[in-house]
Design brief:
about 475 residues; alpha/beta; eight-stranded mixed β-sheet; six-stranded mixed β-sheet; 14 helices; 19 strands; elongated; binds ligand BES; binds zinc ion
């Protein structure tokens, strides 16, 4: 969507839809219409009428009963963009009343950008559709609004990259393809790129990634994207983002049931988040060093695949008994965490992973699951979450959950039994966190996919959940 911010409507101005946003409810309008209001469809508590023969939408933000005020603005911004698409129009105008703060502007625009994303490169009979245009008539505050718009567009570029990658079928995106896409992006955005081939991983003792990837004809790979600003702001805290990059997770020898297995093309959703966030961070030129680490593989059943009962010895000496080959994400993450700490000397690490069905069952698609034992970094992640509109909720890492990982023949096993699955996965990752490292684990298994259109998802598909949070966190690390 092309967006321009102007102070007043241009002379020859013919938008097809006009929008106004009101903080209150519809009571005022109901009286005017003597109670005869058109019934809004789902997620669209607005009033329609015509102004100068154009469709005019009035959004009453109080009517979005399920959302907090900031989210109501994002939803309203998104609905206005979706309406444009629904009526096959391309010219949208927003009239913002005086006194709209930059924060509120930001929330409305974020929703419009989120809702204008489409993934239709696999549709062969697509009507060519000119790029939609949004003109925001803002009155005053132009300079701040335009600067904020540029910031939001940088974040949106990263978010679209994340969603494109996650939506791409596994048949077209094997681990090396993902690495190649990241390498090209790094070149275009001024990030540095490095990768470890399967042979290097083998030699380096990255047993988790090597074992998980062994059942596939497509070799695993680990790669990094690094943002090194010309000048680092004094006091800025370096940040490391780690992503689970399972380009497909069939479960391995512990094969998953067929139902919904196709979603596992996006078991690299965490990796997509890290790549997208790194793109946005580069575009924003944040004055802080950020490195993204991705461990990519395919988890498939095969004669060469790793087996239940196998014991893996990791680079930090920990031995792990494999009791379920479908709990593979934690194994590739363990290697990425060791690489980040030992080789890259990272001390503040946040990982993004579609890690457990248990987290999805606990929190649904509303909250990202957060597991951590690092109070300061955890507080920063919550701040970033609140500002970005992506919600995170903590699941407890009580020491008693750790007991569930006990193995009879190795240090730990890779599953913790039927209960508290997100917590045992969190504890497993902590086996690979060394003294002095701050660490937050974010489980996006409940939020990585939208099963139907709604809120600001214009079509079902991958959401890029975590990208906005990751960029907000990097912004915060650059200023604190
Ligand atoms: N990638 C899955 C988790 C997942 C499931 C993400 C559904 C998104 C939607 C992960 O690798 C997995 O299979 N986890 C198992 C772990 C279990 C075997 C301990 C799970 O959650 O069932
Ligand atoms: Zn799995
Ligand atoms: Zn997985």
């Amino acid at each position: 969507m092309r967006i321009t911010v102007v102070s007043e409507a241009p002379k020859k101005f013919e938008p097809e839809i006009l929008c106004r946003f009101y903080e209150g409810g519809r009571g005022y309008h109901k009286r005017q219409h003597r109670g005869r209001l058109p019934q809004p469809p789902e997620h669209t508590p607005f009033v329609t009428n015509a102004e100068h023969n154009r469709l005019a939408l009035r959004f009453y933000l109080d009517e979005y009963k399920s959302y907090e005020a900031d989210e109501a603005r994002r939803v309203a911004g998104g609905v206005s963009a979706r309406e444009l698409h629904r009526v096959s129009a391309t010219k949208l105008a927003w009239y913002l009343s005086g006194g709209v703060s930059v924060d509120k502007f930001s929330q409305l625009v974020t929703g419009a950008l989120l809702a204008s994303y489409r993934f239709d490169q696999y549709k062969s009979r697509l009507r060519p559709h000119p790029e939609p245009r949004l003109t925001i008539i803002a009155g005053s505050n132009l300079r701040e609004f335009r600067a904020e718009l540029r910031r939001l567009q940088a974040i949106d570029a990263g978010l679209c990259t994340a969603r494109d990658l996650a939506n791409t079928p596994a048949g077209d995106l094997a681990p090396l393809d993902l690495a190649e896409r990241a390498r090209q992006l790094a070149k275009a955005e001024g990030l540095s790129f490095r990768s470890l081939s399967a042979a290097q991983l083998q030699r380096g003792g990255y047993i988790g990634l090597t074992s998980v990837g062994r059942g596939s004809a497509h070799p695993p790979v680990m790669f990094t994207l690094t943002h090194t600003p010309p000048r680092v702001r004094k006091g800025a805290k370096p940040l490391c983002l780690v992503g689970k990059g399972l380009c497909f997770d069939a479960g391995g020898i512990n094969l998953k049931p067929w139902d919904g297995m196709w979603d596992m093309k996006a078991d690299m959703g965490g990796a997509a988040v890290v790549i997208g966030a790194m793109q946005a961070i580069a575009r924003l030129k944040l004055p802080v060093r950020v490195v993204g680490v991705i461990a990519a593989a395919e988890n498939l059943p095969d004669g060469k695949a790793y087996l239940p009962g196998d014991v893996l010895r990791f680079r930090n000496g920990r031995t792990v008994e494999i009791q379920n080959t479908d709990a593979e994400g934690r194994l590739v993450l363990a290697d990425a965490l060791l690489y980040a700490q030992r080789t890259l000397k990272q001390k503040r690490i946040v990982d993004f992973a579609t890690l457990t069905g248990a987290c999805a069952r606990a929190l649904g698609s509303v909250y990202i699951g957060l597991l951590s034992r690092s109070p300061q970094l955890k507080a920063d992640v919550f701040d970033a979450a609140n500002g970005s509109g992506e919600l995170a909720w903590e699941l407890p890492l009580h020491p008693e959950y750790r007991e569930l990982l006990k193995s009879t023949i190795a240090d730990v096993r890779n599953i913790g039994g039927p209960l508290a699955g997100a917590q045992t996965a969190g504890w497993f990752l902590h086996e690979f966190i060394e003294d002095g490292t701050e660490f937050v684990h974010l489980d996006v298994a409940g939020t990585f996919v939208a099963k139907k259109r709604g809120k600001y998802w214009s079509q079902p598909g991958m959401t890029g959940s975590g990208t906005r949070l990751a960029v907000a966190l990097a912004e915060l690390c650059a200023t604190r």
